[in-house]
Amino acid sequence: MEKETKMLNCKDVIEKIWWAIPPIFIVFVFFPLLHYWGAFECISFESYVRTLKFLVIDEPAPIFFHSYFIFGFMCVGYYVSRQKGLMLRIVIPIILAIFGMFIEIVAMFVIYPPH
């Protein structure tokens, strides 16, 4: 009986920790890589000012736009998988967050069309 209680407590701790990992990973890994990759599309002296303008001035709006879609879809994934097994509660939010990222990229092309 005591061993089962310890296993249930361990499972609860894993679920609580795992709930925080995808948002932290998306905020501190996906956002910077996505924005810096988009900012440094061509490296030359002429694009230096444009790159700095993108990183300093135009950065806040796309970050909030990314977070709305990615975290929105991730929250839907958490809500849908709340009564499922542990593996589905881990996988479904990640898949929906990646799906939200792709929808956000399409929406960015619609709102901010390339020149």
Nearest-integer average pLDDT: 70
Helix-strand sequence: HHHH
Round the Cα radius of gyration to an integer and report it: 19 Å
What would you call the quaternary organization?
Answer: single chain
Question: What is the share of helical residues?
Answer: over 70%
Strand % is under 5%
Number of domains: 1
Number of helices: 4
**Main sheet properties:** none
The total count of strands amounts to 0
Query: Structural class given helices, strands, pairing?
Result: mainly alpha
Terminal CA distance: 66 Å
Shape: elongated
Low-pLDDT residue spans: none
Describe the structure.
There is one protein chain. The mean pLDDT is 70. This protein has 4 helices and no strands. It has one domain. With 115 residues, the protein is mainly alpha-helical. The longest helix is centred in the first third of the chain and has 38 residues.
